[in-house]
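Researcher: Next entry in the queue.
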Amino acid sequence: MIVYMLSILAFVLLCFELYKRYYPVKGIPCKDRLDKDTDIIELDIRDYNEKDISANVNIQIPYAYLRRNYKEIPNHPLHVIAANRMELNLGLRFLLKRGFHVSSFEILDCPCKEKGGIIDGV
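Model: Structure for this entry, 122 residues:
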C-alpha cells in the first residue's frame, strides 16, 4: 500500500514538473527586438556565453541567477529574451509569480519571427 501511494505521489510530482517546464505560458506575445524609445526593459535570461555581442539589452541575468538577483529588476514592463522554450517557460513563470509585468518575449531562432506575431501557446 505504501509503495502504491509513493508511486502515485512520484507520478503527480513528475507531471507537475513537466507542466512547469514544457507547457507554454499563454497570453504573452512573441516580438522581435523593441524600439529604444519605449519604456519597456529588455531582460536577457540567456547564459553569459550565449549573449549576442551586438545586442544592447538593459539587464542581463541568466535564469540560473534569477532567483538570487530578481530584486535588481525595476518594476517596469519587461521584454524577456531567452535561448530556448524551456528556459523561457521557467523564466516567465518565475517572473510572473514575483509580480513582474512581462509584455513580450523573444527566443533565438523562433518561428514567430517569420509569422510576425503571436504563435499558439508560446
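Model: The mean pLDDT is 84.
Researcher: Noted, moving on.
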